[in-house]
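REQUEST FORM: STRUCTURE PREDICTION
Request ID: SP-0412
Submitted by: Lab K.M.
Chain count: 1
Length (residues): 846
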Amino acid sequence: MLFCAAWLIFNIALSDQKDLCQMLGTPEYPLLSKGGDVTIGGAFSIHSQISVSAPSFKKDPERPACTSLNLREFRFAQTMIFAIEEINNSSSLLPNISIGYKIYDSCGYTLSSMRTAMALMNGEEGKEGKLCSGSPAVHAIIGESESSTTIAMARITGPFHIPVISHFATCACLSNRKEFPTFFRTIPSDYYQSRALAQLVKHFGWTWVGAVRSDNDYGNNGMATFLEAAQYEGVCIEYSEAISRTNPREKIARVVEIIKRSTSNVLVAFLAQGEMEVLLEEALTQNVTGLQWVGSESWITARQLASQRASTVISSAIGFTIKKSKIPGLRNFLTNVHPSKSPSNALLREFWEVAFGCKFSPQLSNTKMCSGSEKLAELNNQYTDVSELRISNNVYKAVYAVAHSLHNLLACETPENHTCARKDIEPGQVVHYLKGVNFTTGTGDHVYFNYNGDPTAQYELVNWQQNDVGKTEFVTVGYYDASLTSGQQFSINPTKILWAGDPFTKPKSVCSESCPPGTRQAVIRGKPICCFSCVPCAAGEISNTTDAVDCTKCPLEYWSSEDRSHCVLKQVEFLSFGETMGIVLTVFSVTGACLTSGIGLIFFLFKKTPIVKANNSELSFLLLFSLKLCFLCSLTFIGRPSEWSCMLRHTAFGITFALCISCILAKTIVVVMAFKATVPGSNVSQCTVPLQRFSVFGSTLPQVVICTLWIALAPPVPHSRFTEKIILECDVGSAVGFWAVLGYIGLLSILCFVLAFLARKLPDNFNEAKFITFSMLIFCAVWITFIPAYVSSPGKFTVAVEIFAILASSFGLLFCIFLPKCYIILFRPEQNTRRHLMGKKDMKSQ
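STATUS: Completed
RESULT:
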């Protein structure tokens, strides 16, 4: 409809200048008007309700009927007239130039706004013979009060370069210079207010809020920007509903029911005053209380809403509004309005009747009669209340902006792109100079427009508070200035705020309780990000803030505390001599070495006895020496690892055990050869001593070579392993070298076990092969068990397992091979004879 009307007007404007214009339909007349050298149009929603009859398609549609006079909008219109009269009386601004005005009522309805726009362009006269190329009826338009009606007006007047300066249309969409090249406004764009509201909600920690908006351009665009900013701030919206003041009551009731059932305690109401009135009425009916309302500038300072009855629902509301001001002389001008000054003006008569609740021509007997002597100065309503001049001040600034642009236009001396006035002032010239206005009003307000036709976004944060007599006051508790740098734009004094419910306790509105330090948020599937569960940080990670999204990993040298809230220095772990385990292992190691020395001493003292001689004293002493080294080498595994201790512990272990098993292998060979020597004609005894020495040397030498190559190529080195502790250990360097050492010892022990097992039934009263077999069985069992235990043991227990295997196998060899002999030497001397040792077993026992 808008495009069709604009296209029609555009085509008419481009028609041949010789064509005469004839008005189609009935003309639209202004409610308030005055002639002048230049004319400024005005469009206000002087009536807030409209009734439109359904078209019958048989006759012309009836004109919409506007009802319910809006005293606030009527004040806006009178403020425009006041500013014009003030300029006309000025000797410095537009001297010798009078400004006239034509003020229309759009009733807040888009169709009426379109009719108003056409009337402001064409005039209301229906004279025959008027040329279509005539100038527009006005040079600029002040209005509208709502975004949707302003959009309709700006689209129609834009092609004709008629500037529209709105005092109350805040939709961010109007900043689009391509669509609205001639639009200006003295109120900031909702682009800033919506973001300021999102920051406000986040500032108070409200992450779970409800939202209601007007179902028009103002509400839909403003809420869309708010939702985007809220998502960026981490605020979640539980519900988002749209209403219109023309909706049936059932829909309004459904929205209020949603509000009542919600779990959020904060409601962001991005509503025009009309929608707020119908929502408030239904909220009062359903007794909705306890909510913290956050309002937009459209209604947050509307005195009509701040009644004592409404305060039970919207108590302590908070929201942004534009800065208030004082306009000297305005109240006197407003109270001097009287129907007698224009007896034929129906609007003034209607205003007087509404203001005083009377009728000039009463139809009913119980209706109060208007005398005309009533005093407006004695009233205290929305019309006479000048304590909160915010939007009225915008009207005032808009009129002065037009006046300054006209002043600069008329003062132009150097034509530039036809921007200087010749005979008639063109609206396009006014647009050009409006872009460059920069002045300060008498009230101290600095007025200028940016590239998009917007002023600087500056807001006051107001809080509804009741005074001692129960009247609601709008108390300023903070400021928002978009011209400042990020981080300094928003300032607030929370101590001055009174809250809904408990006035001194800020309400809480979250979907999930905050996660304490040491935990992180985990989003619950299917719910918004503000609904989460708290999951403890993993070991080695911390969170030291409330509601942490992620846990932070501690540095390598640190570990998480028990409550996962901070990092603590890790404990350094290694098997030390001072701890219980180290002491026990050291005691066993030293005890083993002492027992080995004691047995050696016994063998030395009884070296001439048959049992010592029969066991080859040279091999026995060498075996005892190697066992002592085995016991002592376990001590190298205890203590802080160093470069030398790491190389020594593994090579000493490998060589001493190889020497020990080599001695046992040689003893096993000697046992077998000793049996062979008893066979007649055998000369085995002659080569026994050289063979056993070669056997020991030849069996030990490969291990020495392996250890030498291991140390030369990839030696064991100290290594720090970072887990929940700093584990100091010896890295084997070459895994091949480590397992080669163990493998060679295993090979020798298996070979020794096999030979001893085969010689276990030799017919001696004292058959050493049995003890060697049993000792090798223990040895192999210990080291086979060692492998999985070594691999799976954590930290210092890996070293403890290795020491335990060394000690267990050493004690096994010592006890199995030497303990029986010591028992005979010390406690059974009668068996320590050559005859007993060489005696054959009784044949009956075979």
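NOTES: The chain has four domains: 2-12+25-51+63-187+390-448, 190-296+298-326+457-496, 519-569, 580-678+691-838.
Reviewed by: T.R.
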